[in-house]
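User: Reviewer 2 asked us to show a designed sequence for the structure in our supplementary figure. I'm pasting the structure tokens here. Could you produce the per-position amino acids so we can include them in the response letter?
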């Protein structure tokens, strides 16, 4: 399997990668591979209809509804 060596890796970037690896419970090497794979992978098409259906199911499981007026009130309350 091919390997690469990174030279002059900035300390800050190294710390960020290590923190990210810890959050994902991966080794630093596996995290770097995951980041590289994500960066070159073809963009996935978003299935909007499926996503909306999933959101509707989630809202139905919550067991309550919120009116547009209530949502506007919540928005305004958070801006004070």
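Assistant: Here is a per-position design you can include in the supplement:
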């Amino acid at each position: 399997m091919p390997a690469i060596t990174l030279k002059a890796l900035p300390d800050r970037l190294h710390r960020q990668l290590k923190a990210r690896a810890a959050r994902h419970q991966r080794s630093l090497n596996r995290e770097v591979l995951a980041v590289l794979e994500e960066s070159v992978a073809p963009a996935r098409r978003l299935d909007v209809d499926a996503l909306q259906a999933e959101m509707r199911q989630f809202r139905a499981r919550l067991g309550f509804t919120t009116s547009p007026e209530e949502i506007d009130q919540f928005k305004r309350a958070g801006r004070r």
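For the response letter, you might also mention the following. The chain has four helices and no strands. The radius of gyration is 21 Å.
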